[in-house]
Design brief:
The structure is a single chain. Helix content is 68%, strand content 0%. The protein contains 19 helices and no strands. The longest helix is centred in the N-terminal third of the chain and has 27 residues. With 403 residues, the chain is mainly alpha-helical. It has one domain.
């Protein structure tokens, strides 16, 4: 099968982005991720860190321990374990493990870029050139969930609901954040009055997620449950709005209640606005809104979460009036990517470290920029109360009145 010129361009640009990202991690690769330079050079990666910390170097099953299992859903754990199995053992095992995983992540990024080009052929080129995306590409295994989430959006908007539901279930079983996409999906089904189709979609997604998770939950329940337990019990963590508030002296108790309540209130408000639109939106147009709410209000907002949001932001960028808001958001992401590592360098005694107050300010800028772009997308189309009559309708009414 011959590739089109556009597809070749997408592959070339995404591959170039992958190579640039590899260059960013060069210092840590050469020093085997040791010393204060990991933070100063902003090249930390969970790939080699968890290879050792979770016993993958010894080929341990990722969910065998109740206290040291991998802190991710099953499909990510399988990827971590399978790539460890094929990693050559020895002194440089960490480096080999890193290289094997980033090769796969680069391929997934290329696949995601191709899907983005099909959804938004006019703006796809933005994804591979975003600085924060390039900088974050090899921090974690997120691209495994991102590709399947974008595929779910692609198939949903083409009304291939069975494929979309399957892709979404796989994505949720990989990183869990795509579960948020069920909210805009439900809104769209409700707007179209396709209640049976919506119920079938939800049931298929849920059943496949259960099928994927059941073997892990039944055979190693405590290890499988560790992901949910850690996320339920974690305090205000890096990058979150709540960490910024704690740095400034505000420490609200009952954090789970606050962030979930705010997320639900924001989702209800967004749903109210979207349901007033004249025509139902596409999932590509509104997916970013809900994932941005989820990340901005959550107890942790890791730097690589930009990988969750960037494809959704690019496919939603169909209205030229939102270009400035898009770049405001990406500016906030780039600023935070610098701030997080220089702040963490404080613990290593680096003279280039960032003071906590400045780091907290960078968090608030990032969160605010993300929500600002989401708000611009939400307000992009007129609702029923502000829609002007069609010109033909106005002419008809005028003629009727005169007669």
């Amino acid at each position: 099968m011959r590739l089109s010129f556009t597809t070749k361009a997408v592959i070339a640009l995404a591959l170039f982005a992958g190579l640039l990202s590899l260059a960013k991690f060069d210092h840590c690769y050469n020093t085997n991720w040791s010393g204060v330079g990991v933070d100063v050079h902003e090249c930390y990666s969970d790939l080699p860190a968890l290879f050792d910390a979770r016993g993958l170097v010894d080929h341990l099953w990722p969910y065998s321990s109740a206290t040291n299992s991998v802190e991710y859903p099953p499909l990510t754990g399988i990827v971590m374990w399978a790539t460890a199995i094929i990693t050559p053992q020895g002194y440089n095992a960490d480096k080999y493990y890193f290289l094997i995983n980033i090769a796969l992540l680069a391929a997934l990024f290329i696949g995601t870029a191709i899907l983005v080009s099909k959804i938004n052929p006019n703006k796809w080129y933005l994804l591979p050139v975003l600085p924060a995306v390039i900088a974050s590409l090899y921090i974690n295994w997120d691209m495994w969930a991102v590709l399947s989430a974008v595929a779910a959006i692609y198939w949903f908007d083409r009304k291939r609901y069975e494929l979309s539901a399957s892709a979404l279930a796989i994505s949720i079983a990989t990183k869990f954040f795509p579960v948020v996409l069920l909210i805009p999906i439900a809104i769209i089904f409700f707007h179209r009055r396709e209640f049976r189709a919506g119920l079938r979609y939800l049931l298929q997604t849920t059943l496949l997620w259960i099928v994927i998770n059941a073997p892990f939950a039944l055979t190693t329940p405590t290890g499988w449950w560790r992901f949910f337990k850690l996320n339920g019990n974690r305090p205000a963590d890096l990058g979150s709005l709540w960490q910024a508030l704690s740095i400034y002296g505000a420490n609200p108790s009952g954090l789970n209640f606050y962030w979930i309540a705010l997320f639900l209130l924001g989702s209800v408000a967004a749903a109210g606005r979207l349901l007033r639109r004249v025509a139902p939106p596409s999932l590509a147009q509104i997916a970013f809104i809900f994932v941005a709410l989820f990340t901005a209000l959550n107890k942790v907002y890791s730097p690589q979460y930009v990988l969750w949001l960037a494809p959704l932001g690019v496919i939603a960028l169909v209205d030229q009036r939102n270009r400035a808001a898009f770049w405001v958001w990406q500016g906030g992401e780039a600023l935070y990517h610098f701030a997080i590592w220089e702040y963490l360098a404080t613990s290593g005694g680096s003279k280039f470290s960032l003071p906590p107050n400045w780091y907290a300010a960078a968090i608030l800028i990032r969160v605010g920029a993300s929500l600002y772009f989401a708000l611009r997308l939400l307000l992009a189309a007129p609702d029923l109360s502000t829609t002007e009559p069609e010109p033909q309708a106005e002419e008809f009414l005028q003629i009727s009145a005169e007669s």
